Amino acid sequence: MQKFKFLFIYILISQFLFVSCSSEVQNDVVEPINALNVFDVSYGANSQQVYDIYLPAGRSAMKTKVIMLIHGGGWTSGDKSDMNDFIQFIQQSHPDHAIVNMNYVLADLTTAAFPHQFLDVQRVIEKLKQEKNELQILPEFALIGTSAGAHIALQYDYVYDISDDVKMVCDIVGPSDFTDPFFSEDPAFNILLSLLIDESAYPAGTNFVEEVSPAIRVSSMSSPSILFYGDADPLVPLTNGQRLQTALSNAGVTHSFTIYEGGHGDDWSETNILDLKSKISSFINTFLTVE
C-alpha cells in the first residue's frame, strides 16, 4: 500500500513539472517583428538634425544591414524627402535591409558646411550603432548620395570612417575634386567654397581645397564605390568622375563607373535611371548582402 502511495505522489509531481515546463516553453515563444517606420528621429540639438528610419519586418541584429540616403542641394538646400524615390526602390529590391534617410545642417552665411556635414553622418551612424539591439539592426552601412550628398558620402567614407562601418558608397553626380580647373578657375565657386569651410575646425596650414576633395583623399582603405556621371553636366563636370575613377584605380579600390548622356541627373532617360538602379542593386547584393 505504501508503494502505491509513493507512486501516486510521483505521478502528481511529474504531471506538475510537465505542465510547468510546457508553460515556460509557451511563454518563450518569440513574437514576429513587424515592420516599423519612424520619422524625424533627432540625432542632435539642431532642428535639422533628424532622420527617418524604415525597419523591415522580421529584422534581426544578426543580419539587417542599413542603407543610408544623403540628399543633394549644393550643401545649402534640399531635404531628405528628395530621396523618397530611392526608398521605394530599395524597399522593393532589398526588402530585408533597413533604410535611413537623413537631413543634415544646411550651410548659410553663419553656418559652415565642412566638416560639420560630414560629422552629421558620423552622429547618425554612432546613434544607430548604440541602438542596434533596440532597433534589431546590424550596423553595417551603404551610403547613397546625390550631388552634394554624394560628396558628403564619399568624404565621410574616405576620411572619417575609421571603424570601417561603411561597406560601400554610391556617388551620383557628386563633386569629387575641387582642384579640377572647372572649379578652381571659377572665382564665384572659390568664394562659395571659402564660405562653406569652417577653417577653425582644421589644423593651421590645411590646404582646404584638397582637404575636402574626396578624389584626393582616396586610399586603399576606401570602401568599394559605384559612380554615375553625366557627359554634359553643367554643375559637376565629367572630369570629376574621371579623376575619382583614376584615384580609386591607383589605390586598388573596387569600383564601377558609368557615364550617361545628359546633365546633372535630372534629364537622364528612363532607361538610364533603370540601369542606374539595377547597377546599385547589384552593388548592394555584392557588398551589403543580407545573409
Descriptive overview:
It is a single chain. The protein is 42% helix and 16% strand. The protein has 291 residues and is α/β, with parallel strands linked by helices. It has two domains: 1-30; 33-287, Rossmann fold, CATH 3.40.50.
So what's the overall shape? globular
Low-confidence stretches: 1-14, 16-26
Given this structure, which CATH class of the largest domain is correct?
Answer: Alpha Beta
Bin the helical content: 40-55%
The end-to-end span amounts to 62 Å
Tally the structural domains: 2
Q: Kindly report the CATH topology of the largest domain.
A: Rossmann fold
Secondary structural class: alpha/beta
Mean of all residue-level pLDDT scores: 92
| Topology pattern, helix = H, strand = E | HEEEHEHHEHEHHHHEHEH
CATH superfamily of the largest domain: Alpha/Beta hydrolase fold, catalytic domain
Number of DSSP-assigned strands: 8
* Named CATH architecture of the largest domain: 3-Layer(aba) Sandwich
Question: Main β-sheet: number of strands, strand sense, barrel status?
Answer: 8 strands, mixed
In terms of DSSP E residues, the strand content is 15-25%
Total of helices: 11
